[in-house]
Amino acid sequence: MPSSGRPDTVYYFGTCLVDLFYPEAGLAGMELLKRAGIRVVFPADQSCCGQPARNSGYFDEARAVALRQIKAFPQPWPIVVPSGSCAGMMKTHYPDLFEGRPEHEEAKAFASRVFELTDFLVNVVNIRLTDKGQPLTVTWHGSCHSMREMGVVDQPKALLRQLANVTLVENGREKECCGFGGTFAVRQPEISAAMVADKVTALEDTKAARVISGDCGCLMNITGAMGKKGSPMGGQHIAQFLLERVDG
Amino acid sequence: MSETARANILARLRAAPRQMVPDRPDWTPPTYGEGRLARFRAMLEAVHGEIHEVTTEDWAERISVLLADRGATRVMVPPGMTLPDGLVAVPYDQPVEELKAVLVQGVEAGITWAKAAIADTGTLVLWPDADEPRLLSLLPPIHVVLLRLGSLVDNLAQVMAEQTWAAGMPTNALLISGPSKTADIEQTLAYGVHGPKELIVLVLTDA
Amino acid sequence: MGDFTSRAPAALNDPTLRANFRRAMDGLMSKRAAQFADKDAWESLRAQGAAAKARVVARLPELLEQLEANLTQNGIVVHWAETTAQANAIVLDILQKAGAKTVIKGKSMVSEEMELNHHLEAHGIRAVESDLGEYIIQLAGEAPSHIVMPCIHKNKAEIASLFEKNIAGLGYTEDVDALTAAARAALRGQFASADAGISGVNFAVAETGTLVLVENEGNGRLSTTLPPLHIAVMGIEKLAEKLDDLPALLSLLPRSATGQAITTYVNMISRPRQPGEKDGPKAVHVVLLDSGRSRVYADAQLQDTLRCIRCGACMNHCPVYSRVGGHTYKFVYPGPIGKILTPQLEGLDCAGDQPHASTLCNACVEVCPVKIPIADILVRLRAESVNSTGSGAVKGAGSMRKRLESLVWKGWAAMYGVPMLYRLGSWGLTRLGNWLPDSLPMLKRWTSVRTRPRFAAKTLHELARDKGYDHE
């Protein structure tokens, strides 16, 4: 039964990183929405939010790609994004990017429809999860942009706490950047390496089996560093983890 | 040189695009009601200040005891202030140029009045003047402050408004919250780095 | 020397330095957090502080004239300097006319910007730093590594050795009280004999012509009270419109900087010594320094940079600063505020690498007490550094543009901006991407500490269609 204010149909913006590297995570988010009784539309013309170009200072290129996304989501449905970072780009920076241009109003209207996935599941869908998995201890990594641009701090933890057999342990440096930063990781490789090394240590200190996150950029960085050092810990996108738990 | 610089700088600033002047949003600084003195005490003690409740009758005797405990006898005071036997009152009655040696090395404590105090931050307000010069609260290793309870207010905004500071500022106005301190070495607090090592506040509860 | 990126490894590979910064930054972050535990109170106080400084930026030329008029009326002599060279010349001239040979200094980042001590020493005037942290780095012959705590990069043992070498009669001790007492004793005589005091300014109140200085040690009060001459140097942006703005600003500054409710001293100076007064300098001068600030002011977005009250909270919370320390930045202002201020003051052609030394994590934005949009300005400066016109609001605009890089971004925009090309490209990457050679420079840097990411067998586009999702 859809609760009041819950839409019948949503758009899903998969993000380029999920599209190319973590499609299962993207699909899991869609599946969670579908099981909640929501029709999920995945526009074929979507690609990337444009953040890499914007953050590198290539505004014209960012605008070209951003405009293509705006055009690909014409209906007034919410746009759900399985990434706080890409959602933050679309919600907070699309309006800035088109400031003083003919597309400004369109960009603002688009931005107002953007939701981060876990925020949407908690605050709009009011989802209820039944855990069928084995006991497991996990820790949470919130991405900087999900926390500071999208205000996503407690929503994913609320979802994890719904899982009866999952123990969520906090890690010591939860609010500190993992060092990914898009092109930062390859532009400032030594600093990024130091940051991710500290992040992995803080996560390992929790003794959790897995780190769960809502952003695949951070996950690629963190699990990549864990893999390289032979850490026993793994990482997973929250959508995929939740689906795995409810499926048992 | 300075005239040309002035003209050039102001011309560049005037040529720039100007933002709207934002309003000051509403903001109510904290108030403490009956808990004012308790707040003042807690905040002052938290920054290593010492506070005693005294009266207009006994403050001089109390100073005498407090300073005797610390082995301090030579005390610089505003001209005209007398101290009980056992303390040597050295009046700050000449320009600093004449008194420098005494101020820097020759006294163990200095006594001033406070113009007001602020409960919010445990702060003393001093307006140094001809009788209570600026260095009286700075050079002696112990600073003793006399504070009338009636002049304790909640916050800085209140003291500025009630005393109409904007109508005329003194040569020097001071907010003092605790003794001199530093944390420059490994964030470890050390007191008395350049100013007083101890700050003793006597609150005259009947004034 | 090189650029920021090439300077970083030396700091990253120095375990003592890393530990010193980590310990210090962790402590400062937790102290600040304790001060602002009440989120509503923080937001409302911060709105007040941001508005106060935004008002200064919006009315800067008028307020500077008002400040000048009121200072002058109060008997304080006002000087204007377009460059640090002019400012140095002004200070030297004042000192020489007064016959000053020794100067005692309070902490001032503007004087660091001017490299004032070197200039004075070259003209036979000895300047002694009196803030304990500044005194320590002056002994060590170093520059500050933090704008509030200049010797934060040094630990007790390093300071103990430095003092043992430089202070006669003091053996090696790591006792902080003993080290502090030794500095006090060494500097007392300097205060008493100095011919002039030089300080910075935290807020100059236009309404009343008042210089507001905050400090904990008392050295600032000594420098501005004991010598017969006081010279204050300040940037043209360090104003407050009214005394009424001070309660919020004086609450935000120390709480953001060091997690203190208030500093030990707030020193408000409105006049030189008046007839009948027994101490205080007989002459007070203020030097208003531009040095690039009016150029920052020329751009409607970038001028928000000038709100800064120099609390240092941005660097305390910066994951990059806390790992490389202040000296890696090479310029006077390190950390996030330095990354936006330095390229604007010095030009993108010599500091254009700095805006790129950030993950845009927004930790600085979250704690800035005057709401400077640091991350947006970082991105704007990146855009200026690669803009194709080669001219723009910032000196050195376009100086970092590389033909290959801009072509790559053009190609990127084509692939991601044309659905047909994206379908083709993403299909190709998922089928062939894992055969890209490990020797590609980007992959090499990535895999230096991480495993190589693997392209999926099929894109989400394909999986969504396979699963029967509406794929319009």
Automatic annotation (TrEMBL), chain A:
<feature type="domain" description="Cysteine-rich">
    <location>
        <begin position="10"/>
        <end position="91"/>
    </location>
</feature>
<dbReference type="InterPro" id="IPR004017">
    <property type="entry name" value="Cys_rich_dom"/>
</dbReference>
<protein>
    <submittedName>
        <fullName>Oxidoreductase</fullName>
    </submittedName>
</protein>
<dbReference type="GO" id="GO:0016491">
    <property type="term" value="F:oxidoreductase activity"/>
</dbReference>
<dbReference type="GO" id="GO:0005829">
    <property type="term" value="C:cytosol"/>
</dbReference>
<dbReference type="Pfam" id="PF02754">
    <property type="entry name" value="CCG"/>
</dbReference>
<feature type="domain" description="Cysteine-rich">
    <location>
        <begin position="138"/>
        <end position="222"/>
    </location>
</feature>
From TrEMBL, chain B:
<dbReference type="InterPro" id="IPR003741">
    <property type="entry name" value="LUD_dom"/>
</dbReference>
<dbReference type="InterPro" id="IPR037171">
    <property type="entry name" value="NagB/RpiA_transferase-like"/>
</dbReference>
<protein>
    <submittedName>
        <fullName>Lactate utilization protein B/C</fullName>
    </submittedName>
</protein>
<dbReference type="Pfam" id="PF02589">
    <property type="entry name" value="LUD_dom"/>
</dbReference>
<feature type="domain" description="LUD">
    <location>
        <begin position="37"/>
        <end position="204"/>
    </location>
</feature>
<dbReference type="InterPro" id="IPR024185">
    <property type="entry name" value="FTHF_cligase-like_sf"/>
</dbReference>
TrEMBL record, chain C:
<dbReference type="InterPro" id="IPR004452">
    <property type="entry name" value="LutB/LldF"/>
</dbReference>
<dbReference type="InterPro" id="IPR024185">
    <property type="entry name" value="FTHF_cligase-like_sf"/>
</dbReference>
<dbReference type="InterPro" id="IPR003741">
    <property type="entry name" value="LUD_dom"/>
</dbReference>
<keyword id="KW-0677">Repeat</keyword>
<dbReference type="GO" id="GO:0006089">
    <property type="term" value="P:lactate metabolic process"/>
</dbReference>
<dbReference type="InterPro" id="IPR009051">
    <property type="entry name" value="Helical_ferredxn"/>
</dbReference>
<dbReference type="InterPro" id="IPR017896">
    <property type="entry name" value="4Fe4S_Fe-S-bd"/>
</dbReference>
<keyword id="KW-0411">Iron-sulfur</keyword>
<keyword id="KW-0004">4Fe-4S</keyword>
<keyword id="KW-0249">Electron transport</keyword>
<dbReference type="InterPro" id="IPR037171">
    <property type="entry name" value="NagB/RpiA_transferase-like"/>
</dbReference>
<feature type="domain" description="4Fe-4S ferredoxin-type">
    <location>
        <begin position="298"/>
        <end position="328"/>
    </location>
</feature>
<keyword id="KW-0479">Metal-binding</keyword>
<dbReference type="Pfam" id="PF11870">
    <property type="entry name" value="LutB_C"/>
</dbReference>
<keyword id="KW-0408">Iron</keyword>
